[in-house]
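Folding Problem: From Residues to Backbone Shape
Fields: amino acid sequence; protein backbone structure tokens
RECORD BEGINS BELOW THIS LINE
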Amino acid sequence: MKAPPLWHGLALSLTAVLLIACGPKEIPQATQPATPVEVYEIETGTATERVAQIAPILNTAPPSELKDAYFIEERIGPVSNSQNSSQNNQRSIPGPSDYHSFYRLEFEVTAIELWRQALVPLDTEAHYAAPATPRAWWLAPDQFEQLQLYQTDPLTHRIHGWVGLMPEVGEIYIYTYTT
């Protein structure tokens, strides 16, 4: 068997030296501490107070008067380095956070057609989602199958998720998320 040419050995040695010299200066940690879910919610106060706080969050004015409303938004993921350095000087993984928002809107059942006219049927598959910490006002998994599903963008500023209409009781459940 013939020995490899001299240039082959030199190329391998040079590659190894470059990888060592240009590689990370410290070995990254295998695991990062779990980032807690941060929550912003509107679920206290009177129905009138909740509606007054949640209606402006919607992309458009509701097609009928709201009787009650609930809202929770969960931020899942790391704080960006710029936010992190000004808040607590701890290291974090750079990158965006994900947001999951859950709304429940209640309206008079007699206004169901106004809501249907304002919504666009969902043309993609949807799956049940719920807040990380269960909320009494959010629908149960077995109720998800009863929803008439619509797109989120007529009511919210987000395009991912679903709007679920429960016409027999005058309730709308909205789940949105960022990616």
